[in-house]
Amino acid sequence: MHRYTGGRLREGSRIAVVSNDALGNFAAVTPLLQMLRTTHRPAVLDYFGGSRIHELASASDLVDGAFPLHGAAPEESVRWLSAGPYDLVVNVEQTAWSKSYAALLAGSSGAVCGPCVGPGGRGELEFPDDDAGRLWLDKRWIVEDLREKHPVLDSGFIGEIFCRGAYLSGPVPGYRIPSVPCERDVPDVLLATAASLPEKLWPIERWIASVETLHLQGCSIGLIGAKPSDQGKFWKGAEDENRLVATGRVEDLRGAFRLPEVVGALGKARVVLTLDNGILHFAVASGTPTVGLFRYGIHRLWAPPASNLTVLVPAPDEAVAAIPVARVVAAVATALGN
Questions:
Q1: Is residue 180 part of a domain?
Q2: Host domain of residue 123
Q3: Gap between the Cα atoms of 220 and 238, Å rounded
Q4: pTM to 2 decimals?
Q5: Rounded to an integer, what distance in angstroms lies between the CA atom of residue 124 and that of residue 103?
Q6: Which of its termini does the chain have fewer beta carbons within 10 Å around, N or C?
Q7: Burial of 170 by CB count in 10 Å (0-12 exposed, 13-18 middle, 19+ buried)?
Q8: For the domain that residue 288 is a member of, what is the CATH number?
Q9: How far is the C-alpha of 32 from the C-alpha of 174, rounded, in Å?
Q10: Is 159 in the same domain as 231?
């Protein structure tokens, strides 16, 4: 096992990518998967994600094999090692399990990009002293001057960081997420009000006020997300969702679609209004005008540089909860063309 430091892989090479299985993380690695395939033209490109996004990963034309590493029983994960070894393993996760698994996938002769345990499972595999190595070592990807610190970057977007960390140059493509047409009618505005962290949330009173304003403007509104029985496993805001549905102004579409259908449904809406969550990234991929509420600073890393995304952030010293209703409603109106 050794560090990859750039250059074309041999013909017929085998590549593995390891990432978190949050919905947004899957979206963020699709530019990486595209660039790995077009640059190296591997015989095999396998993806080790997790159970939450396995339905999407297994339907993706970007990968040859998809393995739900995160969320699987350890003994099952061990069996998947038979898919290796790989010539190149790109791991974009910092967890101990991901770093260990990356080393196992590389075997004794494979190359690794990203975090990885050291030889014999001791310590960390040292990063090279080059642009990509310094980028991986930087623990402050949200800083305003990231591009000045790392001239290899054209933006601070995490999708590009993953690509440059794998020594991939050139324009970074947009998201590419499997989509299935949605056969049912979809409201004008789709909302996604849940998120993985409490600090991402916007107060329910502001959601309700926004819904009332949009309703008075003649918009139909729907709530999209995980089914209520699953919501508390990974996301915050389930009770707020129930209160929003109880207003009678919002069609409850939680759990109504399989993941590829979610992308199709988002594509039929006129606007998506969402927090910083997986739905935001799916909406951007669908091409629908999207208004996203981000924590200040985090937006530099997690807001994709897409023309259909309007990013709203609070003041530098404020929380997402401080973003005014009037500002959100105005952004939605602009996206609607009103």
A1: no
A2: 2-165
A3: 22
A4: 0.94
A5: 10
A6: C
A7: exposed
A8: 3.40.50.2000
A9: 10
A10: no
